[in-house]
Amino acid sequence: MTDPDLKELNAELNFVYRYLRKLGIKHEDSQDAVQETAYRFLLYYDSIKTSKIRSWLVRVALNFYFDQYRKNKRIQFDLLDDKITLLSEDLPEDILLSKENWSDIERVLNELKPQYKELIVFKYVWNLKYEEISSILDMKIGTVKTSLYRARIQFGKIYRRFYDE
Fold it and tell me: In terms of domains, do 51 and 89 share one?
């Protein structure tokens, strides 16, 4: 592997780390997942299609993280902390309202299938386009749109159920 390949790998791994942090995964867990992903990439480098490196890295990192979660049962998605720091110029009342809204949204997201949660975070937290989501997840655009539609419907059902309680 040449130096430009290592620089490209480092850039892609930084993207994966930022993505995991945006999902609300703790710093230490994100680092572990990225480290394991880098290790597996170096092991299987020859068999990976170069045009799909980013989606492969994201998928491996997420699979590793979810495997660790199932083993340890200690998952804690906290999308709130990042949002609170972005709102630091707002009034305290606005911050509290935003925090309450995010806790409701986070509660609903945690009830969704991991794939649906992932799609909603990509689309509405990261504001990615369908093409970008398709590239990252290595899915057809039509599949992304259909799955995102189903995710929104499921999100709405769960959200309404929480408010009916």
Answer: no
